[in-house]
């Protein structure tokens, strides 16, 4: 076969698959009804965890849904239906809610999971593609996937059906997030590592405090102030009076007052009303501020007026943490 023709056919296949799955997602969107709302309500009312289960490709999707729920404020974990029959049913308890996935709704390995939820009155949300399936008939809340062809021409490879199930799981997770008023700060608690955790870090997570702070008083001789600047290693000093940051001394201030510098006091050299930020500021925002104002350090206060000095943040602290 001609190479160009093979490439053309591959591109056509890829576009066909994505097109079919995109059409199915539109069908899924339009099919959502009161059953979806009931499912969200049931998940919100759960006193325990959401137990997500599925077999085969549905099992892979179930794992992802459980992970998404857990990371967005809804405690959840995956239970493999085959392992459930050999002891893992004990991972489910009253107060939990089961979310069970099966495109056919007749997956044999799910029988024990379904029976267990019925026996112990554990609410079950079933997701399947057949309205009369055992799974949906047994469920407390049934969500029927719309009829849509699988993406492969043979119609046998789970593709469109798993894409719809995955999107449905995302829809449930986001709806729950919004109902719980889940904030970026909440989100960071579950994502402390990696780039996402860094982006959601606050300055208070990275700043230096206590004895590390380069602090001097307004009446301190510059000969002593220079020692503090050198010892603390930030290249600046904060001038504090009654616990309030009243000024800063930077290398620029030192150059401007080089003539007779050692005969001066800190208040004669410092820059008043210094640039600061607050403890609740995202580190990403603090980094942007430092870049914008062309400074390498920020003093962190309880409020932007300088009240209650809390710490100092160096631009390298942000970069080491992966911010930026």
Structural class: alpha/beta
Main β-sheet, spatial strand arrangement: 2-1-3-4-5
Label the overall shape.
elongated
How would you characterize the largest beta sheet? 5 strands, parallel
Instruction: Please estimate the helix content.
Output: 40-55%
Spatial extent as radius of gyration? 30 Å
CATH architecture descriptor name of the largest domain: 3-Layer(aba) Sandwich
**Whole-Å distance between the termini?**
49 Å
User: What is the assigned CATH homologous superfamily of the largest domain?
Assistant: Glucose-6-phosphate isomerase like protein, domain 1
Tell me the total number of β-strands.
12
Order of helices and strands: HHEHEHEHEHEHHHHEHEEHHEEHEEH
SS element count, helices: 15
Q: Provide mean pLDDT, rounded.
A: 89
- Indicate the CATH topology of the largest domain: Rossmann fold
What is the total number of structural domains? 2
Give the low-confidence spans.
none
What is the CATH class name of the largest domain?
Alpha Beta
Percent range for β-strand residues: 15-25%
Task: Describe the 3D structure.
- This protein is an alpha/beta fold.
- It contains 15 helices and 12 strands.
- The chain folds into 2 domains: 3-182, 3-Layer(aba) Sandwich (Rossmann fold); 203-320, CBS-domain (Roll), CATH 3.10.580.10.
- β1, α3 and β2 form a beta-alpha-beta unit.
